[in-house]
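#struct-pred

JT: dropping the chains for the assembly here, can someone run the whole complex?
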Amino acid sequence: MNKKLVSVLAVSAMAVSMMPLSAFAEEDLITVGYAQVGAESDWRTANTESFKSTFTEENGYKLIFDDAQQKQENQIKAIRSFIQQEVDYIVVAPVVETGWETVLQEAADAGIPVILSDRMMDLADDSLYTCWVGGNFIKEGETCGNWIADYLEAQGRGEEEINLVTIQGTIGASAQIGRTEGVGNIVAEHENWTMLDMQSGEFTQAKGQEVMESFLKSYDDIDVVICENDNEAFGAIDAIKAAGKTCGPDGDIIVVSFDSVKAAFDAMIAGDLNATFECNPLHGPRVAEIIQKLEAGEEVEKIQYVDEAYFDTSMDLETILAERAY
Amino acid sequence: METIKKLTAKRLFMPIFCLAVMLVAAVIASPDFFKIGVQNGVLYGRIIDVINRGSETVILAVGMTLVVAASAGTDISVGAVMAVVAAVTCAFTAGGQQSVNEYINNPLLGALLGILAGVACGCFNGFLVAKLKIQPMVATLILFTAGRGIAQLLTNGQITYVRVESFKMLGASIPGVPIPTAIFVTVLVVVLTMVLLKKTAMGMYIESVGINSKAARLVGLKSTKIIFMVYAFSGFCASIAGLINSSRIYSADANNIGLNLELDAILAVALGGNSLAGGKFSLLGAVIGAYTIQTLTTTLYAVSVSSDQIPVYKAIVVVIIVSLQSPELGKMIRRLKAKASAQAGKGAA
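RK: done, full complex below.
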């Protein structure tokens, strides 16, 4: 144990002493190691792409990328190899929340700042990482609520009695909790808004359809349907049509959803969906911004949210869709 | 009094009674529960929702009942098999693309391939249980885990959409026909299975294998063959359910199609008064059980119980129904009654 500690100290001392030299040898490129979770979804692939396109040599970076294939041990191995390669910054999108103390301590001993992306780590000592970058589900919900308010205002329905229903995600999922809370905050600000009902559609199209079928029978006058992911919205749209009602920008019922997957753009182009609020995977530029600040010796905030956009039918969706990475 | 006793002694009394109580509760909770209207030329109402949405569970329960009866085990792979069937059908029909607006390949051929894949899964389960004598739950656990992986592979991990109106007909309705198509399919599956079981001696064979497979073999029944067949049939039922579910969302969603439906199907079998230890079975009981579950789900939506509490209500209702049907509880109540009357007798003396 002691031997190991000594060797770690020796290596880190060497690393510190050699750092300016190696940096010089790399022609002033900033070396960044990114330990990615894997490639399990479109979202993740877009996230990887975002890092690869941001940290290019033209931009003054050298990116060492590691795909951990959803295994924590692979990520720990990757971080250790980053330390050995004396990278300037380590970025980790942790697979799980726990079990990171040892390896982060090694990075701290080597004097390498660690930036977390997407998911949090559960650490006794928060100083082991520099900051966290990710999405903010509450803010997504609030953006959605504000969009509805602006949309109704533009239609001249700002003072009207508005009835809303929510098809929630899987109960307990962080996206469900955050989005429900965010929308709730905005609903509370509008006295003429009533949230009639909230039921879980378990993030699936089939359940979204089933829940919407029930809502339509319970309430005659639904103005807005909020779906906590796009798939639920597709089901809700089918249910609305089957009940002989219309939805979308030219219809009776306003339908909005979250995530902004490709099929949601198709639904908006078809005129069924009003808007979709994005869960942005493009973390690369924000991480680069943080690294630049750290390079300049500035302090950075511990929790940093990425900018999240939304898309509605007033935009040129065909063009956006063609340019979108995911 | 005598007729009432006869009635309550009937095998299907309890499942029907439970369904009736559920329906009465549903009407109290939502007075327009039985109101049926016509919307877009299709019947519209909560009770229609129950019958329509319950289709997949009913069809799975039919296959599951026979599996339980013959092998005293359950087929927990049916939900994943549904996903495989949907993936095969959609991937073939869409020609491997992620989203199509017209058929690339013949959808009927796609559905047939899907059914073949489902039956093949059932045969695989049957082989493991009947020939290799692996515990049913362990044997079907293989496809329970691997099925969704296979489905993901077939669809390249994406949801594959087939956005063609005629592809939606199985899960919605055929133009000009006021009844949702899934209801027809369900009736067809249930009736055909019952006729098959009654007209041939298959039903009796399954029961005898389930009661004592050794004895059945000694009187000349090939128990391995019969067990193999019920698993293959369960795979067939899962195929039909998978096609309906896939048509409802005109896509193959490998992660979510049929998710947890195997549990609903097993519950339906149990609610129908069937013993999970195999042997004698009632197909109608399982069908009634499946509709009871769907009535519960639809009612809970109707009364707008907060969604994080729904599982609790479901659990309470299931506990009540299952214990009502437990013979041990009946014995306990009779014993308590006898005690009470004995006490009363003593008190009078």
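JT: nice. Chain A has two domains: 2-135+281-295, 137-279+313-323. The longest strand of chain A covers residues 193-200.
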